[in-house]
């Protein structure tokens, strides 16, 4: 067994924290009213030219704009179909990360889609495109198409970990917000105040994982905070957890994974979301019959 830590849990962890009930996302037909309101917050008319409904999504189309609401998580996706990911042949993306961050923060303040006091800038990424000549097989220099500004969430001084509690805002070459991906569940009332356990159990869980896997285990991130599920998951409460991201390396083979451990004795619902591709039952196979010459 080999187990190392690049990062360990913070030394200062609160002794108690509230557990919040989360507001239930709207389903069709109520989801259409939610999308109409969001469209108005984005300075659109709020009147859809077309509405599409599937099992998990309600889509509001208005001119070149798409608004999608996930009815399990309340997650929101916004796109300008003609400008998101568009390559301007005569324009070069030269915006600084600071400028992109300022534009995105103003967008949040003006639209009111999330509580600006809960946001924290995590990083700025970029979407690139790269062409090439088929005959010479020479590749062109990569070209930036936009800035993707990623905001995380914090409840008071406590960060929110997990795939949720994130807002990615896309700013194009003309300094316009042309896309948004948001998983930011609305807080309801307090369910209970819970005592926070020390991280001993989380460390013990990681040691148990390291004993069972083949290879060396490196924990790259160890964090404490509220844990919010991703776009495809149903979540009813926001509760504290210890989160570890780790890499397992066995010679030339490696994989990355995460482990979430409850930070209190009272657990109100599982931390793991539903499987994306649940395995189906396999038919029983008969053993091959021996052949006799």
Mind explaining what this structure looks like?
The structure is a single chain. β4 and β5 (65-70) form a beta hairpin. This protein has a 15-stranded mixed β-sheet that branches. The protein has two domains: 2-19 and 189-262, no CATH class; 24-132 and 139-188, no CATH class. The protein is mostly beta strands and 293 residues long. It has helices spanning 30-41, 97-111, 200-212, and strands at residues 2-5, 16-22, 50-53, 57-62, 65-70, 76-80, 119-129, 143-155, 158-161, 166-171, 177-183, 187-195, 216-227, 237-250, 253-262. It is globular and about 55 Å long. It starts with a strand and ends in a 31-residue tail after the last strand.
């Amino acid at each position: 067994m080999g187990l190392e830590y690049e990062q360990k849990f913070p030394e200062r962890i609160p002794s108690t924290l509230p557990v919040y009930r989360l507001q239930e996302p709207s389903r069709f037909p109520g989801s259409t009213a939610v999308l109409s309101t969001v469209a108005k917050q984005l300075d659109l008319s709020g009147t859809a030219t077309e509405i599409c409904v599937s099992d998990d999504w309600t889509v509001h189309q208005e001119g070149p704009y798409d608004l999608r609401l996930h009815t399990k998580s309340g997650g929101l996706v916004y796109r300008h179909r003609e400008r998101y990911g568009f390559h301007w042949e005569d324009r070069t993306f030269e915006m600084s990360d600071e400028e992109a961050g300022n534009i995105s923060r103003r967008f949040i303040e003006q639209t009111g889609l999330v509580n600006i006091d809960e946001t924290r800038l995590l990083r700025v990424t970029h979407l690139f495109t790269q062409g090439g000549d088929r005959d010479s097989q020479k590749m062109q220099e990569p070209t930036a198409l936009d800035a993707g500004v990623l905001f995380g969430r914090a409840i008071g001084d406590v960060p929110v970990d997990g795939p949720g509690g994130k807002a990615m805002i896309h700013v194009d070459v003309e300094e316009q917000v042309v896309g948004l991906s948001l998983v930011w569940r609305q807080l309801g009332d307090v369910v209970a105040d819970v005592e926070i356990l020390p991280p001993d159990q989380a460390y013990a869980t990681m040691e148990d994982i390291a004993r069972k896997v083949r290879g060396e285990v490196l924990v790259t991130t160890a964090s404490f905070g509220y844990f919010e599920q991703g776009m495809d998951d149903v979540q009813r409460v926001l509760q504290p957890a210890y989160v570890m991201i780790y890499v397992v390396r066995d010679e030339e083979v490696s994989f990355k994974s995460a482990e979430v451990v409850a930070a209190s004795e009272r657990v109100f619902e599982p931390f793991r979301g539903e499987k994306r591709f649940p395995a189906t039952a396999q038919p029983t196979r008969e053993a091959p019959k021996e052949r006799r010459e």
